């Protein structure tokens, strides 16, 4: 009989490490093994529980209400504020948009005004809910242009959005001005603080210069904040807070028009595993306010030291000085961000490449965790060696003929065979000797090719790539009928 746990360990060996502070994307590590143990055990204890019905599992309701209460205190929420535990930042954003839309049934073709740096989850919400995204270019400092956003508000606008901080660049939008424009027009203002919500309040307490963005700002009606990020909780939870229960009410869903139980939901989900809720509650309880203040001090010390390293390296520059825990850097003409990314990954530091957008060049993105601080001497060495290797290799180039070919393609007119050929030509996928998917070990040539493609072509290629990745693996022996 196969040991499934041994198989899990074998499979997990090929994954990025979630601890150790060296994975600077996707995961957030507080660096405390005991807190991690508490979180894992709480998840396991509640893995079979279901938050669908709070009367059936009142312990989960208690935990959710306490988590929301902690966040309300952290984010200057007034008396009467309410909140919901969601599955992640994207669901929090989706619900904020859905609630704003459904609060205005009088608007037949609703829209929302967002800065060009708003998270892609808002575009997903636009796609899902038919709320047109009016995208407003940001200023040269990569922050929302409050005056331009105010000018973009019209009779169809149901929501205005700001970020604290924006994901790509790590800077906080001028929330005070954006929220004031929304309030003057009688429109909701959502602050996407999925990244910064659990760390920026502590940054302010540490004396760092943090622009105003919480419920203390008049006109802010809702805030999303992820607990699986800088609350260092297990994956699978975020919070969506509203200034009042009346503002949250359109988010809630009920359906009695069928012969089963009356469906009643706060979120996009019906069944909700109790595991992530319990794991988050346990971690937040274990770390506590003082612990988060200490962790914030560690992560910002790490950010400051990384900024100093980048500033002291001639081949590198900051895209913009960060307000939070996200650092975006780019390179000069002696090397390129994609090769630098590969070199850092080969030295045990996972960083995330960001493709060029509009007039912004490609960059390297770092989501810094508290656990990163103790490894910064190694990071400094890896960064210096990676820059040297990238400069020696030279920038990755794409043949001009290939560029012209890609620019001439219409992604809407391509079929599956066309995409299979493009994926193979780009190096995104290949066939292994056994017919399995063979992924590239170095991504610089792939990213360079994607970088010259238009956003619609990138989307089409990567959707085809995801489809190619996600194919069934049948058991070695057929399951008996």
TrEMBL record:
GO terms for molecular function: aromatic-L-amino-acid decarboxylase activity; pyridoxal phosphate binding; transaminase activity. This is Aspartate aminotransferase family protein. The keyword Lyase applies. Belongs to the group II decarboxylase family. Sphingosine-1-phosphate lyase subfamily. Keywords: Aminotransferase, Lyase, Pyridoxal phosphate, Transferase. Pfam families: Pyridoxal_deC. It comes from the Bacteria. Gene3D superfamilies: Aspartate Aminotransferase, domain 1, Type I PLP-dependent aspartate aminotransferase-like (Major domain). The keyword Cell division does not apply. GO terms for biological process: carboxylic acid metabolic process. InterPro entries: GrpII_AminoAcid_Decarb (IPR050477), PyrdxlP-dep_de-COase (IPR002129), PyrdxlP-dep_Trfase (IPR015424), PyrdxlP-dep_Trfase_major (IPR015421), PyrdxlP-dep_Trfase_small (IPR015422). Its cofactor is pyridoxal 5'-phosphate. The modification N6-(pyridoxal phosphate)lysine is found at residue 229.
């Amino acid at each position: 009989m196969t040991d499934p746990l041994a198989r899990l360990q074998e499979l997990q060996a090929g994954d990025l490490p979630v601890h150790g502070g060296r994975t600077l994307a996707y995961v957030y590590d507080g660096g405390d093994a005991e807190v991690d143990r508490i979180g894992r055990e709480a998840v396991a204890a509640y893995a079979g529980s279901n938050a669908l019905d709070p009367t059936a599992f009142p312990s989960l309701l208690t935990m959710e209400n306490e988590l929301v209460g902690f966040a309300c205190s952290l984010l200057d929420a007034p008396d009467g504020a309410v909140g919901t535990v969601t599955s992640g930042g994207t669901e929090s954003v989706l619900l904020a948009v859905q609630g704003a839309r459904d609060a205005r049934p009088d608007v037949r073709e609703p829209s929302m005004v967002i800065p060009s740096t708003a998270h892609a989850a808002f575009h997903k919400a636009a796609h899902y809910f038919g709320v047109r995204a009016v995208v407003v270019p940001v200023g040269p400092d990569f922050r929302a242009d409050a005056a331009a956003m105010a000018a973009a508000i019209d009779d169809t606008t149901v929501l205005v959005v700001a970020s604290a901080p924006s994901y790509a660049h790590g800077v906080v939008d001028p929330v005070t001005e954006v929220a004031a424009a929304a309030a003057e027009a009688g429109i909701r203002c959502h602050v996407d603080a999925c990244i910064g919500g659990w760390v920026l309040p502590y940054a302010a307490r540490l004396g760092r210069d943090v622009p105003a963005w919480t419920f203390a700002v008049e006109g802010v009606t809702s805030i999303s904040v992820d607990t699986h990020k800088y609350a260092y909780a297990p994956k699978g939870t975020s919070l969506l807070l509203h200034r009042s229960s009346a503002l949250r009410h359109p988010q809630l869903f009920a359906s009695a028009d069928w012969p089963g139980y009356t469906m009643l939901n706060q979120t996009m989900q019906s069944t909700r595993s109790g595991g992530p809720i319990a794991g988050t509650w346990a971690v937040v309880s274990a770390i506590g306010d003082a612990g988060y203040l200490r962790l914030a001090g560690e992560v910002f010390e790490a950010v400051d030291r990384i900024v100093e390293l980048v500033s002291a390296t001639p081949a590198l520059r900051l895209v913009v000085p960060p307000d939070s825990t996200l650092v975006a850097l780019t390179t000069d003409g002696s090397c390129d961000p994609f090769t630098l990314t590969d070199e850092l990954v080969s030295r045990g530091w996972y960083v995330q490449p960001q493709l060029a957008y509009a007039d912004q060049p490609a960059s390297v993105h770092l989501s810094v965790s508290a656990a990163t601080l103790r490894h910064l001497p190694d990071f400094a060495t890896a960064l210096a060696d990676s820059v040297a290797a990238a400069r020696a290799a030279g920038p990755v180039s794409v043949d001009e003929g290939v560029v012209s070919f890609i620019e001439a393609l219409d992604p809407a007119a391509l079929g599956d065979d066309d995409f299979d050929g493009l994926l193979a030509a780009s190096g995104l996928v290949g066939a292994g000797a056994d017919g399995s998917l063979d992924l590239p070990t170095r991504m610089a040539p792939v990213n360079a090719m994607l970088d010259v493609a238009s956003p619609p072509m990138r989307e089409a290629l990567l959707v085809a790539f995801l489809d190619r990745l996600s194919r069934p693996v049948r058991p070695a022996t057929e399951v008996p009928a």
